Amino acid sequence: MSELVTNRIHASATKLGLPHLAKTLRELTDRADTEAMGYLEFLDLVLEEELAVRDERRFRAGLRLSKLPHHKTLDDYDFSFQPDLDPRKVRDLATLAFVQAKANVALLGPPGVGKTHIAVSLAVAACRAGFTVYFTTLDDMVRHLTAADAIGRLARKLQTYLRPTVLVIDEVGYQPLERPEANLVFQVISKRYEKGSTLLTSNKGFGEWGQVFGDEVLATAILDRLLHHCDVVPINGPSYRLKNRLTAIENVA
Question: What average pLDDT is seen over the chain?
């Protein structure tokens, strides 16, 4: 390809908003020459490369907006340390069929067993698939909604938690709520019902949610909407954090 034609394609690619093509044009044409590609094969290569770059850019932008605390995947999760947890059930969730169905997932178990890790891994997979994701702890969500309500902006702030395709609510049950706070949680769960997926983690069994939300009737109303379409994953094994702490102590000793 002549230098003149290369420069023209480079300029056109830049104007069309195809920065990857503009940057890698020489590399792509050299590959086409080496592999003796036909015109359609070369066009397919160019489009596939550009789409891959755009998908990766969209994915990274989605991760930034998601507020996820980390970006761990299921490959980083040690299923062997939780023998009572069926890896197949978790990997089935990673197909994101529950997101397509606008269903929910509840990960239940004591602190340190990896509930947040699995929740984040599923959220990362959803983000990779093009779904919008938002992560919050229950305490942070209630605090922000309460502050917005106090200044007459509750409806606007609710959109933060209603808009995403997947809402991750972490640490349900670590702090008991007052009834007005529990009512804010009910509004989020109720308005998301069959409109988006809610993925939550909790150290409390559902039978204890009346204490968490300070009202048995309100807790029942929340659970009614949450569990109608929901995969419940109990994780009752040992704590990863305790395991790591004991390992560190043994190494020092």
Answer: 88
